[in-house]
């Protein structure tokens, strides 16, 4: 009888420990009425260019362009990121940043002119390149060494996400201000 009780206790302990595993992060919906990019302060559209990340302490940050999310990571680091997400260009489903496939070309029009479009799979990205006639296939590791330059010629288009910021580059006075840009603790 004691072996059965010990076995039951071990099974229950395993179930409890498994259930208490790592924290699960999920993408949250975009609310165009209130969501603004924490970097450039532009409205975050519920479209194919929206990105977001959630820190390990549960704070969610939304961006209108993957380049703005990259700026946040440069400033705040990546150690405290629980999960980061991009949108599939075709169906707008959320995709984990690390699992997505990317297409880059400076001529691609994105809200902040970084020229990067994300896809949930390589096949869709390749089809996009074939259709557009331009683009370089990339993955998350490739983006780590990407130069992240904005196409200044595209910055004057003004129709992607509202008006440009006061510095002419789409960012408000060239600063990342307010408590939304506080450095997260590592």
UniProtKB/TrEMBL annotation:
Q: Which SUPFAM superfamilies does the annotation name? A: NosL/MerB-like
Organism this protein belongs to: Cohnella herbarum
Q: What is the lineage of its organism?
A: Bacteria, Bacillati, Bacillota, Bacilli, Bacillales
Q: Where is the composition biased (Basic and acidic residues)?
A: 168-186
Q: Superkingdom of this entry's organism?
A: Bacteria
Protein name according to UniProt: Copper chaperone NosL
Q: Where is this region: Disordered?
A: 149-186
């Amino acid at each position: 009888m004691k072996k059965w009780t010990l076995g039951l206790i071990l099974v229950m302990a395993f179930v409890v420990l498994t259930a208490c595993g790592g924290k699960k992060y999920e993408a949250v919906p975009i609310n165009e009425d209130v969501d603004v990019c924490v970097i450039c302060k532009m409205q975050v559209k519920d479209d194919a260019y929206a990105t977001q990340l959630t820190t390990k302490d549960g704070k969610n940050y939304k961006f209108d362009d993957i380049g703005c999310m990259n700026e946040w990571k440069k400033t705040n680091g990546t150690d405290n990121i629980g999960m980061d997400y991009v949108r599939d260009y075709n169906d707008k489903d959320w995709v984990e940043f690390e699992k997505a496939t990317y297409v880059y070309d400076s001529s691609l029009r994105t809200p902040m002119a970084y020229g990067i479009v994300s896809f949930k799979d390589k096949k869709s990205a390749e089809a996009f390149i074939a259709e557009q006639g331009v683009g370089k296939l990339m993955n998350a590791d490739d983006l780590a060494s990407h130069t992240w330059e904005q196409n200044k010629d595209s910055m004057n288009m003004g129709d992607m996400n509202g008006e440009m910021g006061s510095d002419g580059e789409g960012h408000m006075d060239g600063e990342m201000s307010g408590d939304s840009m506080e450095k997260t603790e590592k």
